Amino acid sequence: MEDKLVLQTANAEELTLSIAGLGSRSYAFIIDWHFRLLLALAWFIGAVLLLGGSFDKHFGELFRNSSASLWTVFLPAVTIYFLYHPVLEVMMQGRTPGKRIAGIRILSLQGQTPEFGALLIRNVFRLIDSLPIFYILGLGVAMGTSRQVRIGDLAAGTLLVYEETTQELKRLPMFSTDSHLGHADLELLQDILDRWSDLEEASRISLGRRFLERLGETPDVLESEDEQIHARLKNLLESACGQLSS
Amino acid sequence: MDSYPRDRAMTAWLRARADRWLKLNTLIDHQRDHRDENLEDARNLVKGFRALVRDLSLARSAVPHSKLTQQLEALCLKAHEAIYRSPSHLRRQLIGLIADDVPRVVRALRGSIIFTALLFLSSAVSGWLLVTQYPELVSLFASETMINKVQRGELWTKDLLNVVPSSLLSLSIMTNNIFVTLSAFVCGALYGLGTIYIIGINGLMLGGAFALTAQYHMEDQLITFVIAHGVVELSVVCIAGAAGIRLGEALAHPGDCLRVDAFREAVTEASKLLPVCAIFLVGAGLIEGYVSPDKGFPVASRVLIGLSYGVLLWLVLTGRAFRRAKLH
Q1: Residue A19 in contact with residue A7, Cβ under 8 Å?
Q2: Is the pLDDT of residue B96 over 80?
């Protein structure tokens, strides 16, 4: 299995992208499937109620009276459900809400946002990828291909990669400090603080202590509680970054 | 600490460069969101990218697995995409597709189109012969409701407009036709066998339906119903089938290329016919919803509509519709 897409820049520097596996692909699809189903249902229910219909035994009357109800209730709901992927992938440059949440996006084999035609082809081939049910054929092909792509991707020359964001870029200047902490230590400290609330209490206390010990910090905090260690680490980062601003 | 001098160097470097990376990031976001044609911005983007690649190279050797390197790689990818993205000329591409690409692909697929048309025709004849010889087999090709109606001396399309309004009928027909067309194309990925199956089944069904109506001397009514929309519908099914066969051929005989590359190339080429097919199917759906079931249209006008629309389709497919425009 290839797990990287390597791009060559004009300066002969290689850029690598991690190829998304079956897990991320399926995760994104399941989220998207829920989104489009809920959106289509929301439209359907909203339109029926707005047109004065009801969901009891008189439900059919709304559609018996005029074909306009069918156009305003059924057609948009079906359109939302079936055109969700192609429309959003084109509008969001190879992404959908589900893919965003899964942290993946579609790229061409050249590492570019796929063209309109390629995205459409990729979606047209869902007809065959979804055979016989639940995308069994597509998943089978993805399992058998080196880049874990379905038939639609093979046809369109696309693949799914993990999306690297530049959100952390703004925090890079804070590492340009003359503190006694090295660059790697500062990054590590920032990481620990970022993930503090996600870690279990015992783990974060142990991690915080080990970090402070590594720096040769005084042992008075080592026996203290979670909040004190957190505050100590935060002070450490702030004092390091404070030297930059001063 | 032993690494202190190196960290000081890193600090100095970060201080010197970080601001430029942030500016480059903002510039890329601006370009992506606005797409204005500011030449100075474009120059700055290219210059910034070159410098960034050098910085990335340095970061990779100094702090290979750091967040800094990871962020620079992400920024580099973003800049690379912004610089190397294909220009978007939708109008020009559409004109090029219809005036040049479609006729070229149709010429290239001429053999496959003839093969698919013959396959469809032979399947239709087979369907006809099967139902004529073994009338009980008609249930394979027609629903019970259809058979019962024909046995009562009515075509199943009779009073269709009393049951379903034209607009809805057109929509459901369009959807179904586009679905069949796309299926005939994509099923070519099963080494062409899926396409052959779809074309064969559609041919058998058509032949079977005509044989059923012929048994009750109603074939002329069916022809009257079909003629206005059928020319384009059947042509489009054959063209989509030919495109599907092309996919199968590419998989079976990839030539010097890798099989997957040959397949991708075949899809890219053959799929150029699909937009034209889809547009004409929308028209055919409207005709089938509004003209075909309406008894107010005499046979002559149905034939005229069917043939004119069919000729228009083939003029577009062969590029003759645009030849005069190109000469000018």
Answers
A1: no
A2: yes
Which tokens is B152 given? 């009562």
Structure tokens at A93: 């440059």
Q: How confident is the model at residue A245 (pLDDT cuts 50, 70, 90)?
A: very low
Query: Which residue shows structure tokens 């586009």?
Result: B178
Q: Which residue has the tokens 């074309």?
A: B199
The 10 Å CB-count burial string (b at 16+, else e) for B184-211 is: bbbbbbbebebbbebbbebbbbbbbbbb
Reduced to 3 DSSP states, what percent helix, strand and coil does chain B have, rounded to the nearest 5? 85, 0, 15
Asked if the Cβ–Cβ distance from A184 to B63 is below 8 Å, we say yes
Interface touch A124/B182, C-beta < 8 Å: yes
Q: Scanning every residue of chain A, which has its alpha carbon at the shortest distance from the alpha carbon of B85?
A: A112
Any chain A CB within 8 A of the CB of B186? yes
φ, ψ of residue B256 in degrees (nearest 5): -80, -15
Q: Is B180 near chain A, with CB under 8 Å?
A: no
Cα dihedral: A193, A195, A201, A202 (round 10): -90
Per the CB < 8 A criterion, the answer to whether B8 and A178 are in contact is yes
Query: What tokens appear for A61 in the block?
Result: 């009357």
Give me the amino acid identity at B324. R
Instruction: Quote the pTM value.
Output: 0.86
SS3 B96: helix
Residue B37 · residue B31 · CB < 8 Å: no
ipTM confidence = 0.89
pLDDT digits (tens, 9 = 90+) for A166-212: 887 777 666 655 566 777 787 888 888 888 989 998 888 888 888 88
Residue with tokens 């053959």: B270
To 5 degrees, how large is the angle CA A120–CA B239–CA A117? 15
Contacts with B233 (C-beta within 8 Å, 6 or more apart), sequence order: B177, B281, B284, B288
pLDDT digits (tens, 9 = 90+) for B261-309: 999 999 999 999 999 999 999 999 999 999 999 889 999 999 999 999 9
Sorted by sequence, the CB contacts under 8 Å of residue B63 that are 6+ apart come out as: A183, A184, B10, B69
CA–CA min distance B94, chain A (Å):
11
Distance of alpha carbon A117 from alpha carbon A107, whole angstroms: 13
